[in-house]
Amino acid sequence: MRFVFVITLLAQFICCGHAGAADTLARIKATGEIRLGYFAASAPFSFAGPDKSPHGYSVDLCQRIAAGVQRELGLTQLKTSWVELGPGDRIEAVRAGRIDIECGTTSWSFSRQQLVDFSLMTFIDGASLLATADSGIKRITDAGGKRISVIRDTTTERALAAALARDKVQAEVIKVDSREQGFAMLAEGRADAFASDRFLLLNSFTSLKSNKPLRLMDEDFSIEPYALALPRDDARFRLAVNRSLAEVFRSGEISRVYDHWLGQFGQPSLLLSALYYLQQIPE
After folding, report:
1. Are residues 17 and 54 in the same domain?
2. Residue where a domain stops, chosen among 193, 216, 239
3. Integer angstrom CA distances of residue 26 from 23, 137, 239, 282
4. Residue 10 lies in domain
5. Rounded to whole angstroms, what are the CA distances from 254 to 4, 14, 153, 223, 276?
6. 118 and 44, same structural domain?
7. Cβ-Cβ contacts under 8 Å for 154 (sequence gap 6 or more)
8. pLDDT tens-digit profile of 173-191?
9. What gap in Å lies between CA 122 and CA 272, rounded to an integer?
10. Predicted TM-score (pTM) of this structure
11. Between the CA of residue 134 and those of 137, 163, 211, 214, 269, what are the distances in Å?
12. Which of 38-42, 246-250, 256-260 has the lowest average pLDDT?
């Protein structure tokens, strides 16, 4: 079923649609600048490193896209300007033209595509729960009567609500404004679990200092297809972005990007490997 989901989404992304009024490539060529958005605390995908500069899997892909845009436009130099974003302003930053590409951990969804366009998928994850060991939460059905924190206005919040409703689980859902706040509530014992994307939870699992032992739930309760948010109705720019991404997949560079940022978690899953393979779109 998940492979069918991936193939269906790929068909959506490959289609270029119609050109609109926006012309991001023309502005980039005229100004010699591309503006990229990142998250400061979404390691290993998008985060501020010790030198305070952006790092991570999504950031790496965006840097390769910027290089591809530079080549396509024939520019001898292209300035890359990084703009720090929060989960609550990432979509609006693209809509308002503050950034050209959002390089974070945004899941593609139809509701978001009403506001922005998306690149080819860059990763596929699932939402899960990081819970205190004594909570007994191993599956979503174990969450009855428990306190679960989740970042408001995210796909994870909606997926959590749907999963609880589907399994008729009565849990107290606590909405927070940031990943840091969700982890703090868990570490301090003010929540029994924190809902987020599995890879983000895995990355923090070993380093998070908690008053109680923690464990990652055995199952995912949603599928989270990551893609880069782009300005709507700008087919030329979306084509340039997707051309650069497809080259990363075709050349095998995606394996080096994965190994560098995510290799500590083991080899790519069969689902992610299929995504990488299917997006080797020819010129």
Report:
1. yes
2. 216
3. 5, 52, 14, 25
4. 2-125+223-278
5. 22, 18, 30, 21, 8
6. yes
7. 87
8. 999 998 889 989 998 999 9
9. 9
10. 0.81
11. 8, 22, 12, 8, 29
12. 38-42
